């Protein structure tokens, strides 16, 4: 086949990119070689639009053992241990085939973690769906949840937390971002690099089929009405196979018989060979005829581009082959030698001994194009950032709005979802399900790890820079509320088509904001994933950077959660209520608007708060802590009363409103000002908490007390909300199940 | 006292059982690989939870053919204590050590939550330290835990007092609302005629420390430790 413009277009290669290929090779590529370039230079693998921006993120810190560039990042957590973690998207496959798309998303990130030599111990998911009045969105949600459970439950890694939000913009493009964390010996992290000329290269795991060919290219394009044709590019997951791979690989890695390991995810064998080769500055030679195949008649092109799941590439020390093969034999897995490490830097692909492709490894990886795509703010930003006060319909009474918010799927209990996930397996989970950060203890130490994934697309839509800062701040604050000191973060940046200047502007601003917040809060980014082209029929999603933060709890017995443990506790609000409604759940749910300026964020106050809360937890001064987020102070208070056995609370606050002319009462109750944490305190400790807050420079005030069976909020000495806990909890607890059953709540 | 924890490919609560025995109970735990044909030194056998062989066919259906299973059968036939938890319970029904089978949960969904389980019988080695009617808070985590057996088997189970655990309310009432999966007669666990083989869907090994939500499951492990110690003392006296 000659390579013409039609062939290039099918491979998603632009004419100028083809020129670059010609220059790098000094000749025309054959079709197999073109295939290698097409997947490795796809947006998904090459980060060609995002790389220049990502480079500005802070990736270093005293605890960082591994920053971006490997399969996952790693931070030192003491006791000679490393927490290895990353977040990755599987958005496009989950839209096409929700169950398998989500399941293989879980499988993929788990492989990234154990590839580093770490045993995975926790999963979290950030999910975004269209609104549930749409039958398709309900079906997608049900499929995604079943797929996450189907894979995670079976492989035996607990799903300990997550974040679910709903917006129309995700109806044609749901987001499925999966976070995984594992534990490894800090001095025994395994790298995805080849070394040692002559060392054999082993292929391990499932056989290679024709599934997923050009999956990475698909994930780098927008959807259109030709959707069903893309279905063969989604893979099917086999958690049992992955469980065997996980156990066998960890057993092999414990022997030091491997010099490098890489999983085969996006771009399959092509990515695994060229990346290990280029990282190690060596050549790789394989014979694809030796690759175990599920189907007959597969061409080298198909074998190299397949994205069949549950496969690993191992570079083994020459002379240790028998040892490695024996371990895989024990687990009934085939380990096949398919090639070896060579001198030079070429990737040589043979088929039955005949060279069918030969490309420098670096040409596929480091030499991939890098774009400085033009960006410009969208028109009409100033209008977007104004709340059209005069157009708002009359505000409902506060209690009515409160109940509406509690029933909103974004706010409502996610019990329907998390009860389908095994969140307890491995007996490390020490935080109740569905309440803020996931917390797992680290056996053999006194420590625990808290983790949270967050990212409010509405805020980023209204102001990408500010919104991204708020995303990091919220994830870190959730971790702090469990008593964790944030020590590292991973990002999953979900945006639309970067070839549109206004989308690229959102991206550039968001990354800049994220970097500023990381520096101010002292949290390095150790890796992550970018998912672009999240559009269907030209409509982009809300720009959604999801940030996963990991925090260290020194004393696992001192973690706290959010539900009130007793009546008669003082309620202290750390931080200030500025009454900001911009981008709030209230505006969206009650008035159907995403408008205004997102809540302001004073990063120095946020940093002080995030130091203060874990110190209060560690000192045993507070009984519970809960971050104020969607639905504002009123919803935060209610959530603390839920799952408490019906313990109510009464608070009294002054009115606050910074968005000129907006309903002051609504802004006070439901505004989403950042840097606020509601804590409950034994009255005997209140003075100590206020004094610690004062020393930390965090505003703090006693606003009420737990007790009774109602949630009562007085604003300016007038009753604004008075509602029984039972009634509110019923609304909050049953809404999601009702909406998924297609009932109006 | 040594607990043998059998590891099947796809077992995923093997480490939980090991940790509960070794770290919390303070007894010796050993993993036994399913391809082995001998249990080695063992006073108690635990078949742990998980998804043996992926449970793609029928839960536990392939694990019953593992090379270790004849040794487990022999151990059970000798009247020695065997505990099957979740997938382990499913394997025990597949290999015929316990009657019945597990259907998919009534609502076709996986359930993971803490439930109340009433202890019906204290005359098994795993419940000797419980009181009859005691309610335990134990986690469940399964998609196929809906216990089923034909009517004559159900009658026989009930008549011979072999229902060991039932799903109940916190107050110990047996009700449909307290039944998480649709199991017949709210059955959460049963034993064999010899009462030495016990299978249950809830996970006592995951509920051995209050830090993880409940310590109510520890009594099962303490019971069997106590029962064996008592037996050992009797044998010593007899000699």
Q: Per the principal axes of the C-alpha atoms, what is the gross shape of chain A?
A: globular
The top-level CATH class of chain B is Alpha Beta
CATH superfamily heading of chain B: Class I glutamine amidotransferase (GATase) domain
Binned, the helix content of chain B reads 10-25%
Radius of gyration of chain A: 26 Å
The tally of structural domains of chain B comes to: 1
Biggest sheet statistics of chain B: 9 strands, mixed
Structural class of chain B: alpha/beta
- Kindly, what is the distance between the CA atoms of the first and last residues of chain A, rounded to a whole number of angstroms? 59 Å
Average predicted confidence as pLDDT of chain B: 97
Strand order of the largest sheet of chain A: 8-10-7-11-9-12-13
Task: Provide a concise account of the structure shown.
The complex is a heterodimer of chains A (745) and B (239). With 745 residues, chain A is of the alpha+beta class. Helix content of chain A is 35%, strand content 23%.
How are the SSEs placed, and which strands pair?
The complex is a heterodimer of chains A (745) and B (239).
Chain A: H1 5-10, H2 15-25, H3 31-40, H4 43-46, H5 51-54, E1 64-66, E2 73-78, E3 81-89, H6 91-96, H7 98-115, E4 119-129, H8 135-155, E5 159-166, E6 175-185, E7 200-205, H9 215-218, H10 239-253, E8 258-263, H11 268-280, E9 283-287, H12 300-305, E10 311-316, H13 321-330, E11 335-342, E12 346-351, E13 354-360, H14 361-364, H15 381-384, H16 398-407, H17 415-418, E14 438-441, E15 448-454, H18 457-462, H19 464-481, E16 485-494, H20 501-521, E17 525-531, E18 535-536, E19 539-540, E20 544-553, E21 570-574, H21 585-591, H22 603-618, E22 624-627, H23 632-641, E23 649-653, H24 664-670, E24 677-681, H25 686-696, E25 700-706, E26 710-715, E27 718-724, H26 725-740
Parallel strand pairs in A: 4-5, 9-12, 16-17, 23-26
Antiparallel strand pairs in A: 1-2, 2-3, 3-6, 4-6, 7-10, 7-11, 8-10, 9-11, 12-13, 14-15, 15-20, 16-20, 18-19, 21-24, 21-25, 22-24, 23-25, 26-27
Helix pairs in contact in A: 7-8, 7-10, 8-10, 10-13, 19-20, 19-22, 22-25
Chain B: E1 2-7, H1 14-25, E2 28-33, E3 44-47, H2 69-77, E4 82-85, H3 87-94, E5 101-103, E6 111-119, E7 135-142, E8 146-148, H4 151-159, E9 163-168, E10 187-191, E11 197-200, H5 218-238
Parallel strand pairs in B: 1-2, 1-3, 3-4, 4-11
Antiparallel strand pairs in B: 5-8, 6-7, 6-9, 9-10, 10-11
